[in-house]
Design goal:
Helix content: over 70%
Strand content: under 5%
Distance between the termini: 26 Å
Order of helices and strands: HHHHHHHHHHHHHHHHH
CATH superfamily: MFS general substrate transporter like domains
Number of domains: 1
Number of helices: 17
CATH topology: Growth Hormone, Chain: A
Length: 421
C-alpha cells in the first residue's frame, strides 16, 4: 500500500480557479438536496417499518432487508456513476439517475409482496446514488482543501435538516395513509429534486478535463486510490463511523418503539433531535474547528465521543434498568460526532484525488453504504425485544473506526495538515 505524503497527482484546475464558481447559496441548496435525497429515502420510511412487516406478514429481519437492499443499491450505484461522471461530465449521469429513482419509487408504492418491494428498493438505491456521488464530485471540482471541507460541512444544513423533518413527516403521513403513501411522497420528492437539479446545476467538468480510457482506466484509478495508505485510512475511518450511525438508525425504530414504549410520534421527535445535533456539530466543525485545529485532531475528538456514546449504550442496556430518557441521551451523543467525522474524512479523501473526483467520491460512498448495509442486519439480530445488538453494533463499529484511524493515518506523526490549503 502506497505511503506518500502528497496527493496522487497534481491538482487539475478547478472551476473556481477558472473563474466559474457559482453562487454559494444556490450551490449549497442544490447539492444539499442531492445529498439529502438518499438519507430521506431511509428516514421518511423508518416510522413505517413495523407497519410494512405487519401488512406483508414478514419478520423484522425481512422487513429490514428493504433497508439493506436500498443501502446495497446506493453503494453499488455510486461505484458505477462516479467513474462515469469523470468521463461524461456530471449532468447527464445525474439527471438519468434521478429519473430512474422517480420510476422506482412509484413501483415501490405498488409492490404486491416483499420480494417486489425489496427489488424495487435495490433499483431505487442504484438510481439515487447519482445525487450523492455527483454532489461530492462537484464540490471537488469547485474547491480544494479547507474550502471543500467547509462546503461539505455546510451541506449538512440542508442534507441534515431534511432528515430531521423526515421522521416527523413520515409519522404524520402514517396518520393519513399507509406505508405505500410514504413511497408516493418519496416519488414526488424525487421529481422536485430532479427539476431543481436540471434547472440550477450547471456542468462543472468541461470536456477538456474529463478522463478517457473507459472501464480499464477507471479500475486502475480506483486501484491506485485504494493502495494509498492515507486515502484508505480516511476512507475506512469515515465509513465505519457512518456504519455506527446507521446501526443506531436501523435499530432505533424497533428499540425505542417496541422495547422502550415510544410512540411513532415520540420516536420521530427524538430522531429529529438527534439529527439536529449532528447538523449543529457539522456547523461547529466547519466554523470553529477546521482551519483552527488540525484535521486529525478534529477526527480524534469525534471518534472519542462516538466510542464513549457506544460504551454508554452498552452499559445502559446491560447493567442498568435505564428508561427512555437515558437511552435517548446516549443516542443523541452517538449521532453528534458523525457531523465531525463524515465531512472531514470525505474532504481528506477527495483532497488526495484531485485528478479523479468522481472515482474517489464513488469509493467513499460505496464503502460507506456497503458498511452501512450491514448495520440493519446486525441491529436486528436480537429481534423486537432486545436493544443489546444495536448497542454492541454501535460500540464495535466505533472502535473499528478508531483502530483504522490510528493504524493507517498515524495521527501522532508530525505532518502538515492536509486540509490547510
Amino acid at each position: 500500500m502506497a505511503d506518500t505524503g502528497t496527493t496522487l497527482a497534481e491538482p487539475a484546475p478547478s472551476a473556481a480557479q477558472r473563474g466559474h464558481r457559482p453562487r454559494r447559496l444556490p450551490l449549497v441548496l442544490v447539492l444539499g438536496s442531492l445529498t439529502a435525497l438518499g438519507p430521506l429515502t431511509v428516514d421518511l420510511y423508518l416510522p413505517a417499518l413495523p407497519r410494512v412487516g405487519a401488512d406483508l406478514h414478514v419478520s423484522p429481519a425481512v422487513t429490514q432487508l428493504t433497508l439493506t437492499a436500498y443501502m446495497v443499491g446506493i453503494a453499488l450505484g455510486q461505484l458505477v456513476v462516479g467513474p462515469l461522471s469523470d468521463t461524461l461530465g456530471r449532468r447527464r449521469p445525474l439527471l438519468t439517475g434521478l429519473s430512474v429513482y422517480v420510476v422506482a419509487g412509484a413501483l415501490c408504492a405498488l409492490a404486491p409482496d416483499p420480494g417486489v418491494l425489496i427489488g424495487m428498493r435495490l433499483v431505487q438505491g442504484l438510481a439515487g446514488a447519482a445525487g450523492i456521488v455527483i454532489a461530492r464530485a462537484v464540490v471537488r471540482d469547485l474547491y480544494d482543501g479547507l474550502g471543500a471541507a467547509r462546503l461539505l460541512s455546510s451541506l449538512m444544513l440542508v442534507s441534515g435538516t431534511a432528515p430531521i423533518l423526515a421522521p416527523v413527516l413520515g409519522a404524520q403521513l402514517l396518520r393519513l395513509t399507509s406505508w405505500r403513501g410514504v413511497f408516493i411522497a418519496l416519488t414526488l420528492l424525487g421529481l422536485v429534486v430532479l427539476t431543481a437539479g436540471s434547472a440550477l446545476l450547471s456542468e462543472t467538468l468541461p470536456p477538456p478535463e474529463r478522463r478517457h480510457g473507459g472501464l480499464p482506466a477507471s479500475l486502475r484509478t480506483m486501484r491506485n486510490l485504494v493502495r494509498d495508505r492515507l486515502f484508505t485510512g480516511y476512507l475506512l475511518t469515515g465509513s465505519l463511523g457512518f456504519a455506527a450511525l446507521f446501526a443506531y438508525i436501523a435499530g432505533s425504530s424497533f428499540t425505542l418503539q417496541e422495547v422502550y414504549g415510544a410512540s411513532p410520534q415520540t420516536y420521530s421527535l427524538l430522531f429529529g433531535l438527534n439529527s439536529l445535533g449532528m447538523v449543529a456539530t457539522g456547523q461547529l466543525n466547519s466554523r470553529f474547528l477546521l482551519g483552527r485545529r488540525p484535521s486529525h485532531r478534529v477526527l480524534g475528538i469525534g471518534l472519542t465521543v462516538l466510542g464513549a456514546a457506544g460504551t454508554a449504550l452498552v452499559l445502559l442496556v446491560t447493567v442498568t434498568h435505564a428508561g427512555l430518557p437515558w437511552i435517548a441521551v446516549a443516542l443523541f451523543l452517538t449521532a453528534c460526532p458523525v457531523g465531525m467525522i463524515l465531512p472531514t474524512t470525505t474532504a481528506l479523501c477527495l483532497q488526495r484525488a484531485p485528478h479523479a473526483a468522481g472515482s474517489a467520491s464513488a469509493l467513499v460512498g460505496t464503502t460507506q453504504f456497503l458498511m452501512g448495509a450491514l448495520a440493519p442486519a446486525l441491529s436486528g439480530l436480537g429481534g423486537r425485544a432486545n436493544a443489546l445488538p444495536m448497542a454492541v453494533s454501535v460500540l464495535g463499529l466505533a472502535v473499528a473506526a478508531a483502530g483504522c484511524f490510528l493504524a493507517l493515518c498515524r495521527p501522532w506523526r508530525p505532518a502538515p495538515d492536509p486540509l490547510a490549503t
